[in-house]
Design a protein that fits this description.
Layout lengths: L1 H13 L7 H13 L8 E11 L10 E11 L3 E11 L5 E12 L2 E6 L4 E6 L7 H6 L7 H5 L6 E9 L2 E8 L15 E6 L5 E7 L5 E12 L17 E4 L18 E3 L1 H7 L15 E9 L12 E8 L5 E7 L3 H7 L6 E7 L2 E7 L12 E16 L5 E14 L4 H9 L3
Parallel strand pairs: 6-12
Antiparallel strand pairs: 1-2, 1-11, 2-3, 3-4, 4-5, 5-6, 7-8, 8-9, 9-10, 10-11, 13-14, 14-15, 15-16, 16-20, 17-18, 18-19, 19-20
């Protein structure tokens, strides 16, 4: 494996003066996002800034969340991330601030909420590369989910640009054609990939209407420099409330992991593979057509525990780019988001096939203000035995509720109700 990795590095570096394709750059970025060691990076120190804007139909941008990260990484399993978050008004006025420190010391994973004065400690997998965990937590702009799920997007090479003093390739991802996305997150994306290491140094994400809603950019980065060992260890501050979750915790589950990658299939395949009867609408508004079908499994569960632990997304779209999503199954994200909407969201109830259903007008991306998305969700029933993970991450069985959720950025509640009533 080492020989193969070195060969891959040599091939990439040896062709850097020749024309490269978007696919080559993308594959390089995927590998580096999982482990920079594959590019000869044994340690790095970086700083990064980023902003997420909460889009609203009535304004270009409303409130925003700004983050500033500092990262110290030593391959393969030690890392420290310090991050400061600020919630901003449209005029830049600071609403609130909070700070967090995360440390992987090679044995344990520590997470310190500075403002709450709380500390949580978990076991980490000492054999796993912690850099990908930092990417997942937003500490580097190399969004591994974006890099992986390119079956939903076109990818093109758009030239080169200097970021943090380093030459990068610019990749442009086209508008998402499949997958579950919140309003505003279906537009194109831009990624800047370091030519030498393959690490992503900058990313931008746009709404369908072209508005920028999120970006992250590395402002300084240093490779293979010595890191003080004090940066890669953690001592809880005096008086901190410590939650120790290491007891009886299996090795390898103490760190965050990305959501399972969807499997894009045909409707017939989904009906065959799913552990439940996939419901399909017989009534769809004019202009909408089925664009994609995806089947998700809970990646944390063993195969023998996967009955009633999966969900399916049907994505419909019209020629103008408007979308209609139907999520159904066990633990499906779309109905979960609708059913768990906070009290400040505009919401109500109605009946679908005699079952109580909840509707909302708004979404997390516009801070639950009306507009941008209308959603509808309900429980279909409970089927057999399902499986899940308890807070201590043990596999347990439970009565398995199946939910259905429907959402659209252009249809109103009555149109969604008609679609819902036609599901068979």
């Amino acid at each position: 494996m080492v020989a193969v990795s070195l060969l891959a590095v040599a091939v990439f570096q040896g062709t850097k003066t020749r024309p490269v394709s978007a696919a080559q750059v993308l594959e390089r970025a995927r590998t580096a996002a999982e482990s920079p060691l594959s590019s000869g990076v044994k340690s790095l120190v970086l700083t990064q800034t980023g902003v997420t804007y909460f889009l609203d139909d009535g304004a270009a941008r409303t409130q925003a969340s700004r983050g500033e990260w500092k990262v110290w990484y030593e391959a393969p399993n030690r890392q420290r991330i310090e991050v400061d978050y600020s919630q901003l008004e449209p005029d830049g006025r600071v609403l609130s601030q909070d700070s967090e420190v995360s440390v992987w010391d090679g044995t344990d994973y520590w997470r310190h909420d500075v403002d709450e004065g709380s500390v949580r400690v978990l076991r980490q997998d000492p054999g796993a590369d912690t850099y990908s965990q930092g990417v997942y937590r937003g500490a580097a702009p190399g969004d591994s989910d974006m890099l992986r799920t390119t079956n939903c997007r076109s990818v093109d090479l758009r030239g080169e640009e200097a970021i943090a003093g380093r030459t990068t390739y610019i990749l442009e991802f086209g508008r998402a054609k499949c997958g579950f996305s919140l309003p505003g997150s279906d537009g194109r994306s831009m990624v800047w990939v370091d030519k030498s290491t393959g690490l992503v140094l900058k990313s931008e994400m746009y709404a369908v209407d072209g508005r920028l809603y999120a970006f992250r950019e590395v402002t300084s980065i240093e490779f293979n420099a010595p890191i003080p060992q004090s940066r890669l260890s953690f001592s809880a501050p005096a008086g901190a409330q410590i939650r120790d979750d290491r007891r009886d915790q299996p090795i390898g589950v103490g760190v965050a992991s990305p959501a399972p990658e969807p499997k894009q299939i045909s409707l017939a395949e989904a009906r065959k593979e799913a552990t439940f009867e996939v419901l399909v609408p017989s009534s769809i508004p004019a202009g909408f057509a089925l664009e994609s079908v995806e089947h998700y499994w809970s990646s944390d569960l063993a195969k023998e525990h996967r009955s009633h632990a999966d969900y399916v997304f049907l994505r419909y779209a019209d020629p103008q780019g408007n979308w209609l999503l139907i999520g159904e199954g066990f633990g499906a994200l779309l109905p979960g988001m609708i059913l768990q909407a906070p009290p400040e969201a505009r919401q109500g109830t109605l009946e679908i096939h005699g079952q109580p259903a909840k509707w909302i007008d708004g979404s997390p991306t516009n801070q639950w203000r009306p507009g941008g998305m209308v959603g509808l969700a309900w429980e279909v029933g409970r089927f057999g035995e399902g499986w899940g993970l308890s807070p201590d991450r043990r596999t347990v069985s439970y009565g398995s509720p199946m939910h259905v959720g429907i959402a659209s950025n252009s249809l109103d509640l009555e149109q969604l109700r008609i679609v819902a009533e036609s599901l068979r």
